[in-house]
Amino acid sequence: MPDMGGSNRSAKKSYATEAARAIKYRNANLGLFEQLRGVAVVNGTVKDLSPKVKSYVEENVDLCQPEKIHICDGSETENHHLIEFMQSQGTIVNLPKYENCWLAKTNPADTARVESKTFICTEERSETIPTPKDGIKGTLGNWISPKQMDQAIEERFTGCMRGRTMYIVPFSMGPIVSPLSKIGIELTDSPYVVASMRIMTRIGYQVLQKLQESDDFVKCLHSVGTPSSGFTEMPSWPCDPERTIILHKPKENKIVSYGSGYGGNSLLGKKCFALRIGSTIAKREGWLAEHMLILGITNPQGQKRYIAAAFPSACGKTNLAMMTPSLPGYKVECVGDDIAWMRFDKNGQLRAINPENGFFGVAPGTSTKSNPIAMSTIFKNTIFTNVASTSDGGVFWEGMEDDLNPAATITDWRGNKWTKASKTPAAHPNSRFCTPAGQCPIIDPQWEAPEGVPISAILFGGRRPAGVPLVYEARDWKHGVLIGASMRSEATAAAEHKGKVIMHDPFAMRPFFGYNFGHYLKHWLSMEERSTNLPKIFHVNWFRKSSEGKFLWPGFGENSRVLDWILRRLDNEDCSTETPIGLVPSENAINLSGLDEEVDMGQLFGLSKNFWLEEVFAIEKYFKEQVGDDLPEEIRAQLKALKRRVESMN
Ligand code: GTP
Ligand code: SPV
Ligand code: MN
């Protein structure tokens, strides 16, 4: 039976020792404990901290002034304490319908990532973001100077953990034994963060032990904060939305996050480390840290390949990563659903690891029909956040109607009675499940392979209601990089954006670049020199709509029909036709057999000269205004060539 993603594997303590420690913890007479900078260490021992970790902790104990220090060991006992404590605070409630499942409801002001308050700190602004055209506001990240960063920290963190426990969370991104993995230490005053990090990453003693050898780690400091008025509106979910700030200093491998307990703002291994700091490390070391799912797919002939795919937040990564193919004979297995760390091995083969250990997935829309695999993963050992609850001790969200016990009543994510006639959603549109990857029934046998899995194709995609066909293939690597750079998608609830505007989201990384996007493009282009066996690049769009506003493509398991075409292209099958935007499936090349719904392939693949002229114009404008002189010459040339091809369309 898998535990909560945690690692009692890592803390091989006898039950008796664990129990003794538990009693000691409960009867905490703080004076009896070992001290660090005059603060009681109520769990773990200081000698387990390497000199560098110890001094990082000391420095921040002095700054944050917690009442207690808890060094996380990743054990079951520890998790029980956290769960008990959070229940007593009202942060989580049990969901008796399932096994070891919990529901957290956040402050309604703290439900998503806050991109406008997320900063990268470098000496020069141009290291962080390209210089936008005069008078234009840059949208490729926010820069902060070292001086301003220090000031922001001092203002917010001085004494911010008074009366609270500082948890020291040693975590590994990637399997602890993998040479591709990296270690972080997150200091946090949120037990919710500890319990979630225990699922999303590998935490505990083994990580501290590894640090005794290398002592190289990413410094992650997090506090939910306290409003400057001192008044905490919702004691079960303390936060400070007005002063929330998420800071990254790549030069020092340092992350500082204040004021939010929510997912991407607080589980610092995820977007902050694995993508923002990760992309800067990857640039230095010559690899790629990307917002991509990784899946294994076996065709009816038994040939298995791996695909990585970058879609923006809430655009279908988790769904594709766990897809149940509708095409007979196909099998999909999941390596990861959000982040890929990829590098070319000595044979020029691109290999990827999933640095995470769990799924922090969008709940609404997840159903037995759309994603049965997720549904059979998430009802044990899971923390749900901001979903609705049912009177029979379960959860509910939009899409779960068929799974609902008709006798049960529903309480929405804000705690109000909810019925199907209600005008507001039952679950927050960005509500999430946080569940151990290892219990996914189709987890790939190689998902923890230290050397990673070989990647044969890279997909880019987004929500494009108009103009963009279901799938097309890049002409070559450089053209593929242009396709990634040109990605656009309809805004979703995963961040603070309002409405359904089509936003530029290059490589699905716009919120996650750790350095200047122009330099990032150069880095991608340079991969061409590392291999003679580059993955093929494709663009997919599950979200094209008819003139009546209906999805033209059934999506989900039916996307296997698109993957089937992609795999045949990898085998160099002659099943594509050149168009100005790239290669599309030739007539009847997409296998539609057994599809019980009528699909208007004409509308789904239609290419309009006007649409593509406007698209090229929008991309040109975007590059000119946002990337300016940092745009690599090759990309400028690729766009020019695309424009010429589109202009010559009938
Ligand atoms: P993040 O975790 O935010 O990075 O999101 P994600 O990219 O993993 O998105 P996810 O798979 O959770 O999907 C988000 C939403 O898109 C859900 O409501 C899904 O039901 C919906 N969705 C996913 N795949 C498809 C598809 O093929 N067609 C349609 N129409 N909707 C889809
Ligand atoms: C995303 O927004 O891309 C997510 C969720 O995966 S969060 O962890 O909040 O960033
Ligand atoms: Mn994501």
UniProtKB/TrEMBL annotation:
Its EC number is 4.1.1.32. Gene3D superfamilies: 3.90.228.20, Phosphoenolpyruvate Carboxykinase, domain 1, Phosphoenolpyruvate Carboxykinase, domain 2. Residues 287-645 form the Phosphoenolpyruvate carboxykinase C-terminal P-loop domain. Its cofactor is Mn(2+). Residues 56-283 form the Phosphoenolpyruvate carboxykinase GTP-utilising N-terminal domain. Keywords: Decarboxylase, GTP-binding, Lyase, Manganese, Metal-binding, Nucleotide-binding. GO terms for cellular component: cytosol. InterPro entries: PEP_carboxykin_GTP_CS, PEP_carboxykinase_C, PEP_carboxykinase_GTP, PEP_carboxykinase_GTP_C, PEP_carboxykinase_GTP_N, PEP_carboxykinase_N. It catalyses: oxaloacetate + GTP = phosphoenolpyruvate + GDP + CO2. GO terms for biological process: cellular response to glucose stimulus; gluconeogenesis; glycerol biosynthetic process from pyruvate; oxaloacetate metabolic process; propionate catabolic process; response to lipid; response to starvation. GO terms for molecular function: GTP binding; manganese ion binding; phosphoenolpyruvate carboxykinase (GTP) activity. It is an enzyme of class 4 (lyase). Belongs to the phosphoenolpyruvate carboxykinase [GTP] family. Monomer. NCBIfam families: PRK04210.1. Catalyzes the conversion of oxaloacetate (OAA) to phosphoenolpyruvate (PEP), the rate-limiting step in the metabolic pathway that produces glucose from lactate and other precursors derived from the citric acid cycle. PANTHER family: PHOSPHOENOLPYRUVATE CARBOXYKINASE, PHOSPHOENOLPYRUVATE CARBOXYKINASE [GTP]-RELATED. This is Phosphoenolpyruvate carboxykinase [GTP].
